[in-house]
Design brief:
Elements lengths: L1 E4 L5 E8 L3 E9 L2 E5 L16
Antiparallel strand pairs: 1-2, 2-3, 3-4
Length: 53
């Protein structure tokens, strides 16, 4: 896993999966739990690997 950051500054963990095509899964820590997300829980922007720092 890699630690990246949304444009708003929220930490996002990224894991890459591959069978035939590469796919990025995004995780955030919310209230001491790890959740898979598609949008940032802070700014509600859709996660895109190219837009993360």
């Amino acid at each position: 896993m890699q630690k990246r950051f949304c444009a708003c500054g929220v930490a996002v963990w990224v894991s890459y999966l591959s069978k035939a095509n590469w796919k990025a899964l995004f995780f955030v820590k919310v209230q001491q739990k790890i959740k898979t997300v598609h949008k940032c829980p802070h700014c509600n922007q859709y996660m895109n690997i190219d837009s993360l720092r």
